[in-house]
Amino acid sequence: MKEEEKIFAGKLFDARKKELRDIKHKAHILCQKFNLLDEYDEKRLPIIKEFIGKIGQKYYFQGPIQFNYGCHTFIGENFFANFNTTILDDGKIYIGDNVMFGPNVSLMATSHPLIPKERIAMKYEDGHVSMSEYAKGIYIGDNVWIACNVVVCDGVHIGNNVVIGAGSVVTKDIPDNYLAYGNPCKPIRLITEKDSKLDLL
């Protein structure tokens, strides 16, 4: 079984094997290229499509950005990400339509075993010892706003129409239509028509 297949099968994998390093290297080089270009440069945004798994027709990344694989991330229509988006997409990441990220949002779709000897469990004939990882992936629904300095951890499912407050660390699922925040992040209350700001128009 290839290392990438191990990821998607939910098994321990070795992120330092050449097979995976080669996939990541493509995304890393293209992220560097993106980050060096001016935000008005017409060649900048199309770079995303060179490494992303899938993305809608309308999207914007302010940059700088850093993807680990890129090809394991699937994004819907009308996506916006502010400064310093970091996506460790070892596991697959699915992001719905009309999603907004504030500055410094990090999606961490990977983890290490807690027991030390399991983190170095994979030993190879060439003497290489892996720092073992496993990944469950992350799912983010439609119409979600993730505010600044949020970390979304591996295995989390965020429902539709959710707002995640600034500085939150999301370790558990968040149901549809909730305002959630905190460390650890918790659903605080339903978002209702009372939250409307149309009077400010």
Automatic annotation (TrEMBL):
Name listed for the protein in its UniProt record: Acetyltransferase
Source species of the chain: Clostridium aestuarii
UniProt-listed Gene3D superfamilies: Hexapeptide repeat proteins
Extent of the signal sequence: none
Keyword set includes Transferase: yes
Entry's EC annotation: 2.3.1.-
Record SMART domains: Mac
Pfam families referenced in this protein's UniProt entry, alphabetically: Hexapep, Mac
PROSITE patterns attached to this UniProt entry: HEXAPEP_TRANSFERASES
Entry keyword set: Acyltransferase, Repeat, Transferase
CDD domains (alphabetical): LbH_MAT_GAT
Domain Maltose/galactoside acetyltransferase: 4-57
Record-linked InterPro entries: Hexapep, Hexapep_transf_CS, LacA-like, Mac_dom, Trimer_LpxA-like_sf
Family per similarity comment: Belongs to the transferase hexapeptide repeat family.
